[in-house]
Specification:
The complex is a heterotrimer. Chain A is 84% helix and 0% strand. By secondary structure, chain A is mainly α. By secondary structure, chain B is mainly α. Classes of the chains: A mainly alpha, B mainly alpha, C mainly alpha. At the A-B interface, helix 1 of A face helix 2, helix 3 and helix 6 of B.
Amino acid sequence: MTVAEGAKYVAAAYAIIMAVIIVYYFMSSRRVAVLQRDIQLLESEVKRQTPAPGAE
Amino acid sequence: MKKLLSAPVLFAAAGILLVVGVVLAFWYSPIDASSMGFSQKIFYYHVPIAAAALVAYGVAFVAAILYLRSQDLKWDRLGYVSVRIGLLFSILVMATGMIWGKASWGVWWAWEPRLTTYLLACFLYAAYWVLRSVVDEEQRRATYAAVFAIIAFIDVPITYFATRLMPSGLHPVLSGLAGSMAVSFGICMLGMLTLMTALIKRDYEIELIKDRVTDLKTSLGG
Amino acid sequence: MSGWTQFKAILRKDLIRELRTRDMLVSMILFVLLAMIIFHYAFTVKEGADLTYFTGGMLWVTFIFAMLLGLNRSFAQEKDEHCLDGLLLCPVDRVTIFFAKTVGNLVFLLIIQAVAVPVFALFFVQRSFLGDLLPFLAVLLLADIGICSLGTLLATISMNTRSRDLLLPILLLPLLVPLLIAATGATTLVFAEGIGFGSVVARLLVLLGFDAIFLVAAWGTYDFAIGE
C-alpha cells in the first residue's frame, strides 16, 4: 500500500476521532450552559423566598 | 494542586500531548516496515484509545465497589460517567479499528479477538445503560448498576481470552517498538489517558451540578 | 437453622413446586425440541448440507434461550406470588438463597438436557460419541453452572425493574459469550471429531475459570442484588 492510498485511511481515522470528541465536548458544554442558567434562576428564587421563613 | 488537576487544565495538557504525539508519529517515527506501511500510523491513536476505554471501565468498576460499600451516590455518578466515556472510546476503537482493517487487510470487519472484545464491551455497557433506564428508584438503580458494572468489567478480559480460542490470525501483532516509535506512542498514550481523565472529570462535575439543581428544585417545593 | 439446612429447604421448595405442576419443565422441553426442528429447516438449504460443525452451536444456543425462558418464568412467578418477599423476612443469609436458587435452576436445566441431548444426537450427530461421554458431560456440567449462576444473579435484578423479562437477555447474553465460545467449541469437537480429553482441556479450563470467577463475583454481590 503506497503512502498516498494509506493516507486516505489514516486521515479518515484521525478525523473521526477528532470530530467525535469535539462534538461530544460541545454537546456537554451546551448542557453545562443550561444547568448554569437553571442554577442562577433557582438560587435567586431561594434568596427571594428565605426572608419570610415563618410565612411558609 | 486542586487547580492543577481541574478539567480545563487537563484538557489543555491532553491537547498538547496529543498534538505533540501525532506530530512525532508522522514526522519522527519511521513508516512501518511491515505490509501495513503507512496505515500503521493509525495505531498511535487507536491503541491508546483502546487502553483508555478499558481504564474508564476500570474506574467504573472501582466506583461501583465504593458505592456498594458506602451507599454514597456520588460514586454512582462517577460510575455512570465513566461508563459513558468508556462506551464513547470503545466506539472510536471499533471505528478506527475497522478503518485500519480495511486499509491493511482489505475487509471492513473480521471476527478477531480484539475487535470482537470491544464489540462485546459495547453491548455489555449498553446493557448497563438500559438497566439504569428501567429502574426508577435512585438507590436501587445505583445498586443494580454497580453490581452489573462489577460483573461486566470482570467479563471483558475473560471474553478476550475466550475469543483467542477461536482461529484467526489477522490482527496485526505489534512485536516490540523501535525506539522512535515508542516515544511517539508513549506520548499519545499519555495524552489519551489525560483526555479520558479530563472528560470523566468534566462529566462528573456536570452530574454533581445536575444533582444540585434537583436539590434546589425540591427545596423550593418542585 | 444452619445454612445448609436452609439451603436444602429452599431448594426443596423450588423443586417440589415445579415438579408438582411440571408446566415450566414441559414447556421448556417442548421449546428445546421445537428449536432443533427449526434449526434443521433453517440451515439445510442445500441438499445434503453437513451440519456437523454447527452442532455445538445449535445445542448451546438452544439451551441458553431455554434458560432465558425458564429463568424469566420462575422469577416472575416468585415476584407475583411474593415468595421472595416472604423469604427475605426470614433470617436467611442472602447468599444461601442464591446458591439454593442456582442449584434449583441447574437441576431443571439438567433434566431438560437429559431429554434433549439424545434427541439432538438422533437428529444431528453422525458419529457415536459414547466413547467421549465423560468429557462431554464435564463440558455440559461446567457450562450449566456458569449459565445458572449468572442467570440467577441477573434474573434477580431484572425482575425488579420496569422491563422485567425483557431485560434479562440483554444483560445475560453478552456476559455468556466467553462461556458460549468454550462450550460450543468443546461440544462440536466431541460431536464431530471425538478426540480424547486432550483437545477439549483448554476449553474446559476456560469454563472452569469462568465458573469460579463468576461464582465468587455473584456470591459477593448477591446481597445487593436481592435488595433491601
